[in-house]
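Possible regression after last week's pipeline update?

I re-ran a chain I had predicted before the update to compare outputs. Posting the input and the new output here so someone can diff against the archived version. Not blocking, just want to make sure nothing changed silently.
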Amino acid sequence: MQISENLKKLPNRITMFRIIITFAFIPAILAERLMWNYAALGIFLIASISDFLDGYLARKYNIISVFGQVMDPLADKILVLAALLCFVHLQVAPVWMVIIIISREFFVSGIRTMAAQQGKIIAASKWGKLKTATEMTAISATLLLISIHKTLAHYQIKQGEFMDISPETWMLKLIPYILFFIAASFSLISGLEYFFKNKSIFESEF
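New output (post-update):
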């Protein structure tokens, strides 16, 4: 099946779009205004959908490019790492969990790079896919909770009420903690799986 040049380039354009909107996501989530926090949630969801879309198009039409192979996973990492670092700044994600998740990303990227230099391609594992799913769920849920928290704060201040709606409330602390704990656990497990399944890559180095 012959496809047009525009269609061939569409997955790469979607990937580039995802990278660009990530830089709009950062100030939106860090902003004090409520509308910007909802905008951050919307941007993240759009970016997540675009990730699915460019992958779907690439698979359906067998579109393979060096740009896509390098930049698509990089775009995903930029988006996720930006969200995680913002959450640490906002004190809604534990630092040690974020360190595990980020370390795993760099570690697996290193393994993939070494494998590629040896002519090997490492496919995503079941644990890797679970890691990605839990990461996206944790980030989306946390963005939603931040928006809900600020909505309640805005409403109660407007009504002259002063209930305990600080960032220390259980909803904004406990739920992200549980979700990021699961994501960090899957990150650790999948990182170890990648290492043990591909430890032959390291044999010539030690």
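Follow-up from reviewer: compared with the archived run. The longest helix spans residues 126-158. Marking as no regression found.
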